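can u do me a favor
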C-alpha cells in the first residue's frame, strides 16, 4: 500500500517522468551527486561483499536491506514532493 501511495504521489508531482531512473536523475542533478561514480561504486561494493561473505550472506543481506531501501525511496519521494 505504501508503494502504491508513493507511486501515485510521484506521478502527481513529476508527471513528465516515466521511470524511477528519470526521477533519480533529476534528484541527483539537484543534489549534485555524480551518477557515473555511483554507477561504478555500488556494484563494486556488492561484488566485494559476495567474494568476502559468500552467496548465502548476500541473500540474507538482500532481505534485511529491503526496509532500508523502502525508507530511502520514501525519503526521496518526500524530498521531491516538497
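np, heres the sequence
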Amino acid at each position: 500500500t505504501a508503494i502504491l501511495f508513493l507511486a501515485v504521489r510521484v506521478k502527481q508531482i513529476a508527471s513528465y517522468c516515466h521511470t524511477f531512473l528519470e526521477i533519480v536523475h533529476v534528484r541527483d542533478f539537484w543534489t549534485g551527486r555524480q551518477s557515473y561514480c555511483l554507477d561504478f561504486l555500488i556494484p563494486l561494493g556488492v561484488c566485494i561483499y559476495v567474494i568476502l561473505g559468500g552467496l548465502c550472506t548476500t541473500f540474507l543481506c538482500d532481505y534485511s536491506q529491503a526496509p532500508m531501501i523502502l525508507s530511502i525511496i520514501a525519503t526521496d519521494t518526500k524530498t521531491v514532493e516538497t
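Residues 27 and 33 are 9 Å apart (CA to CA). hope that helps!!
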